[in-house]
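Dear Dr. H.,

I hope your travels went smoothly. While you were away I took the liberty of generating a structure for the chain from your last submission, since the lab meeting agenda had it listed for discussion. I wanted you to have the full record in hand beforehand rather than looking at slides cold. The sequence, exactly as received, is reproduced here:
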Amino acid sequence: MPPVTRPDVYQDRLAALRAGGPDTLIRFMHRFPLVADAVAGSGPLSVQLAPHGLYWGKGQPITDLDALARLLAAGPAIELAIHGSATRNEQQLLALAAWHGGSLTPDDLATEDIGAEELERAVRGLSELLLTDASRGWVVLRPGIIELAPLPGIPIRDWSNDVTSAQLGTMLTNLGVSAGPRKWERLEALEAALRDETMVRSAVDALDDDSRELFLTVARSGGAGTRAVDAMRAAGMHYTTLHRLSATGLVGFSGWDGRMWVWLDVLVALAGGRMFEDWSEPVLDLRELSDDEVVRVPPVVGRLEQLLDLWTTSPPPALKSGGLGVRSVRSAAKVLGLPSEEVGLLSALAADLGLITTVVTGRHGRGRNQAVDQEWRVTGARDAWRSQSPARRWARLLQCWLDSDHLETTGKAIERYERGVPQRTHSLVRTTFLHALRRIPEGSGAPSASMVGRLVFEHHGLLAPAIIRQLTEEARILGLVPNGDVVGLGSAGRTLLAGVADLESGIAGASDRFVIQADHTIIAPPDLHHDITTMLERFTRLESDAGARIYRVTAEDTVRALDAGWTTTEMLDFLSEYSEAPVASNVERTILDAGERHGRLQVGDATTWVACDDPALLASAVAVRAAKLEAISPTLAVSGLSRDKVVTALRAAGLAPGERARAKPEAPEVRSIDARHPLRDRPVRADGEVRQLATALFANSAVTTRTDHGD
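The corresponding predicted structure, in token form, is as follows:
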């Protein structure tokens, strides 16, 4: 169903935009940056909602105030303004206004423990978000807001359609309150009684022991309620206790799902008229960001290349559902020497970009019992991917991360990929998180705990602590946030958000030299060219990236490169070409020794077999207990373990087995990367661009108005 736009809500937003002028719109878009993105034809709000109440297939720019007002009047946009851009204090003030019928006076907050400064900021913030109308009073909700206000419970008035006049009369009698015969009179009388602290406490005291115990159990569950049957069973109560308690009017009960709750009216009365306990604003603990201030493409782009290299020669199997499983991700992570969370994110982005896709490799059985074998293969789109500059590849990774509605944001690290049902919230939370990072002063950040507390306050209801921690780690993997305890946008990340062209010009003078030392370490400058860095990471291991990068040449990583198709000659030639110092003889020996051992042991599937032309070397392999090998000839041994486990065991023992070469699988074709995730020059709107967008909207609207009058 398309979002419904009520005429009175649309007219109110249009009048507010016209009356406020460009400055009001600029403040609004700073508080609600997803709207600025939508005006420019980008971002999740643009893709999901059209200003005329229809769904779009892709984002389109908003060109006048009328279209913008229709967008802002749609229910999903109002909900996002409340839950995505309003702070916790603003949401609580909004709830109090809805509780009091749509408007507030300062006297209505006499029981709430909120400071004058916090209150002033919340009042001003609601007006800036066009949720309240300052021209009509202190806090007066605009049309379409009261229905969506985030109340912390269920008021008795919301249940009026499900309660008969006779039931209301019984409740009033039990409370000792008289009212007129009409339903609305009885409802008003019951509402007033349930908000009276003295009357509510008297009614609770008058309950029998079982009813009071059940009432307190339900009250402790908060406004969401609990399953009454479960509570009674735990307390050993009879079902009649539920009926007696329901007749008092203190609680509500749903026969559909068995939930019972204490009315919000009662909870507020028992709290002495206070609805919310906490009005404090967490302060962001700003600190200097440990960033080398060098604009460079981060390693994530090169690591994606390594993953695609691996899966070009060894495609991972697909799950029966068509997804990519945890085992395949962890296996690739072990081979590449990367965290499984990083490989999981990269594999999901590669799938969304169309760089990998599933192909059918076989079928078994017939009819309904037929089983289909699938595997993930690198697609022909990789050639177009490689033809782009490293800066543009990084920008596309970020764009895909922001736009994807498949990448889950549940607070858990991504270690598998499933083509689930697209969800708008996935893109919303990532885009909101990135906007929040961008608002932090340049060169600054905050410890993780402080950042989580502040973002939960600023985006209460959209960003939960676990989700913020997940997105922070993903931002580190993508190179937006530097490693370390302080969370903030690095210099390269800020440059990318300013525009791809700015990033490309910033890395134009990158260094093309490093220094290899006799202790097997390689010292690379922070601005080493991305392509050289990518090549270097294919057969060395990164040990430190704090300032200058330090890599180490090891036999294990040399074997990894040999598995991917490199030769020892290519590695040594590369080191000689780009190192300012000659390659030491012991470093050369490490690489050559690994090359001599590599492939002499051949591992394949039998159960698992291991072949070698050197009986002594094969005997060394059989001596590795973890491989569980049994020699059946001087040059052949077999094991009951899987091929991967045998390879892992032999490599852990210092051997360098190779795997029987497979024919290179054919790369399937997919849609172009541009069609999947069109690259925007700026993933988020800069301050100056927001002003330009607001000014252009008013200019276009003025032209439209004159044209309409002329007609």
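Two observations you may find useful: The first helix runs from residue 7 to 31. The radius of gyration is 32 Å.

With kind regards,
E. W.
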